[in-house]
Amino acid sequence: MSDPVTHASVTVAMTVNGSAVSHGIAPRLTLADFLRQTLELTGTHTGCEMGVCGACLVMLDGRVVHACLTFAVQASGSVVETVEGLSGRAVIADLQEAFHQRNALQCGFCTPGMLMTAHSLLSQEGVPSRDAIRDALSGNYCRCTGYEAIVDAIETVARQRDAGGATQSAEVGV
Amino acid sequence: MKARAFSYVRPSTVMEALQAFEGSAEDASYIAGGQSLVPALALRLQAPQLLIDIAHILALRGVELQGDWLRIGALTRHHEVMADPLVRRHAPLYSEAAPHVAHPAIRNKGTLGGSIAHADPASEFPAMTLALGAELEIAHRDGTRRVPADEFFLDLFQTAIAPGELLVAIHVPVVRPGHRWAFHELARRRGDFAMIGCGILAEFRGDLVEGIRIAFFAVGNTPIRAGRTEDSLIGKVLDDAAIVAAQALVGDDLDPPDDEQTPPSMKRHLARVLLGRLLGQLARQGT
């Protein structure tokens, strides 16, 4: 029935972790599969592939979204940042350290998504309450830790960053 | 868990989108945020030959006050609905419901128009559309038409949008002094689909209920107004007796389908609980 010619590959161009990339792909390729298979950025994990588990979260034009619920072709023209990008430019080094210190991961499958959510939450103003952290994490499944350590790690960094910011302001004030 | 192969187009105007659908022999889907459609494609519940990406059509964006109506572009994302000051002021049931819609990452991508056009009976926004008495602006080849929410939700995932037509905006009659509203839902976990939920918009003259729209979700094939319960409250003061009487009626307004997790008797019980809480809130807003 279907004419295979009509499903020919399309060219997508986007910025991923600061670099311009351009590839010919099938329209049905999800952004998650594009990142993992075409660009070999395997930090973005595919778990449920239906927007439930949160392992595939990435930043798309500055907001956290599921890479499994976006076709790569939809993201053409956009700016994407993956966990490799965030860790590479050290903006989540404190989160990674806090996850390590607090044992906030066991198998690590959910961790990239957890870090994405945490990064997004902590990019907002103020120190989130534990309830707000739990609410933000409600779309991230972890089957190992029971979440408590993850909430602890994120709360720790939120307070550290707030104290750091306060110290800096005080220094500027002096 | 991979979608069947499809072709993709990205129109920049509504007319281009409608034409793309026409050219597809009606084997196409519009995609906006895709937060319901992409999983449906992955599960192959839908397998169109063509995906028409409407996310870049500027005419579908923006929130604007037009006289006594608030026009919300269909592409307004859930996180924008949540934060928009015009929505908060003029169509507050959407603002109250928004934090309960799925999870932050879904709200960053999902659109109000997409949620309403998808018409999942367990979703918050379709029911709030009904409670607010909104009108849905639908584009077709010869222009646009506006359908009142009461005539829009026809059956499970079925709306007044005909194949090929496109929902372009939601028009909400702005709330006025004397209006009170309340929203609540009961979900097992934050962000999960609710077991039941309800939004109420009521107009008071002094302490008397002059008009009221009570819309439940997750109780049937469409969002549902509790018509007899509404009628029973007109002209009443929202005192304990009126609330108890309304609670006694509301079960008859609903005909929940059998569902092994929340059977009809439980849904009716939860409806009474929700209604009592919400009417109590409305009563207290007047003090």
List key phrases describing it.
heterodimer, A: about 170 residues, alpha+beta, 5-stranded mixed beta sheet, about 40% helix, globular, disordered N terminus, B: about 290 residues, 5-stranded antiparallel beta sheet, 4-stranded antiparallel beta sheet, 11 helices, 14 strands, about 35% helix, about 25% strand
In words, what does this structure look like?
- The complex is a heterodimer of chains A (174) and B (287).
- Chain A is α+β, with helices and mostly antiparallel strands and 174 residues long.
- Chain A contains six helices and five strands.
- Chain A has helices at 31-38, 83-88, 93-101, 111-122, 130-136, 148-173, and strands at 10-16, 19-25, 57-60, 63-66, 79-81.
- In chain A, strands 2-1-5-3-4 form a five-stranded mixed beta sheet, with helices on both faces.
- In chain A, strand 3 (57-60) and strand 4 form a beta hairpin.
- Chain A starts with 9 loop residues before the first strand and ends with a helix.
- Residues 1-5 of chain A have low confidence and may be disordered.
- Chain B has helices at 14-22, 37-42, 78-83, 85-90, 92-97, 104-107, 112-118, 124-132, 227-233, 240-253, 264-285, and strands spanning 7-9, 28-31, 50-53, 63-66, 69-73, 135-140, 143-148, 153-155, 158-159, 166-173, 179-186, 196-205, 208-217, 224-225.
- Chain B is built from eleven helices and 14 strands.
- In chain B, a hairpin with a 2-residue loop joins strand 6 (135-140) and strand 7 (143-148).
- Chain B has 287 residues and is of the alpha+beta class.
- In chain B, helix 9 (227-233) packs antiparallel against helix 10 and helix 10 (240-253) runs antiparallel to helix 11 (264-285).
- A five-stranded antiparallel beta sheet of chain B has the order 4-5-10-6-7, with helices on both faces.
- Chain A binds chain B through residues 2, 4, 6-8, 10, 26-28, 30, 49-51, 54, 57, 60, 63-66, 68-71, 73-74, 117, 120-121, 134-136, 138-139, and chain B through 1-8, 31, 34-35, 38-39, 41-43, 49, 51, 53, 55, 79, 102-106, 108-109, 189-191.
